[in-house]
Amino acid sequence: KKRVVAFISGGGSNMLALARATQAADYPAEIIAVISDRPDAGGLSKAQALGIPTFAFARRDFDSKDAHEAAILAELGRLSPDILCLAGYMRLLSGAFIQRYEGRILNIHPSLLPLFPGLHTHQRAIDAGMTEAGCTVHFVTEGMDEGPVVLQGTVPVLRDDTAETLSARVLRVEHLLYPQALLQLANGSVRMEDGRTVRPLSRAHPSGT
Ligand code: GAR
């Protein structure tokens, strides 16, 4: 099985969805550890309850972003993961960090990228009058929320939606989408090549159609 480390900053519901999906005997990956930049992240105790080792690296314990990342990279060196899954990790990784795990970092973002990168996505989608919203799992590249898309899921935006009701609807889809996307990366049916998503085994569209 591919060794996966999940990165969280908060409640960790996506991490939990990944952990549960990967427990299936025939799933090609397993969550071997959870790393948080917040020692108080609610997801840490959820991971521990499943017997998953957790590591917290508070940014304030380090003098610089470089030192913070160096500590995380050192732990990753010991864990030797194949894949990193950012699951509500609210910190931008440096270019050097991303290059170290190029093509092996996934992120989930609660919008239909390239629409609404960054924060407050649900309120922005409502304010823009969108009738459809959703979530995206993508490969992580240096630009924030810019990497090539692996999978997207959509939900309707309802007339009386608030950011809270919309985010709850999107989150339920996130929990289905992320395990599917990780499955595809872990079993080799998707990869990143030259900054693009490639699906080696998918059949080309018949010519002339
Ligand atoms: C999720 O909705 C995730 O898509 C979002 O944070 C939430 C984390 O929830 N991520 C981002 O906004 C990243 N820019 P969780 O901790 O319960 O998985």
UniProtKB/TrEMBL annotation:
Pathway involvement of the protein, from the record: Purine metabolism; IMP biosynthesis via de novo pathway; N(2)-formyl-N(1)-(5-phospho-D-ribosyl)glycinamide from N(1)-(5-phospho-D-ribosyl)glycinamide (10-formyl THF route): step 1/1
Domain Formyl transferase N-terminal as annotated: residue spans: 2-182
InterPro entries: Formyl_transf_N, Formyl_transf_N_sf, GART, GART_AS
One annotated GO molecular function: phosphoribosylglycinamide formyltransferase activity
PROSITE patterns tied to this protein: GART (PS00373)
Keywords: Purine biosynthesis, Transferase
CDD domains in alphabetical order: FMT_core_GART
Binding-site residues for N(1)-(5-phospho-beta-D-ribosyl)glycinamide, renumbered to this chain: 12-14
Active site positions: 109 (proton donor)
EC annotation from Swiss-Prot or TrEMBL: 2.1.2.2
Gene Ontology biological process: 'de novo' IMP biosynthetic process
Pfam families: Formyl_trans_N
Binding site for (6R)-10-formyltetrahydrofolate: 65, 90-93, 107
Region (Disordered): 194-209
Catalysed reactions, semicolon-separated: N(1)-(5-phospho-beta-D-ribosyl)glycinamide + (6R)-10-formyltetrahydrofolate = N(2)-formyl-N(1)-(5-phospho-beta-D-ribosyl)glycinamide + (6S)-5,6,7,8-tetrahydrofolate + H(+)
Site (Raises pKa of active site His): 145
Protein's UniProt keywords contain Thylakoid: no
GO cellular component: cytosol
Function as written in the Swiss-Prot or TrEMBL entry: Catalyzes the transfer of a formyl group from 10-formyltetrahydrofolate to 5-phospho-ribosyl-glycinamide (GAR), producing 5-phospho-ribosyl-N-formylglycinamide (FGAR) and tetrahydrofolate.
Family: Belongs to the GART family.
Cited NCBIfam families: PurN
Name of the molecule in the record: Phosphoribosylglycinamide formyltransferase
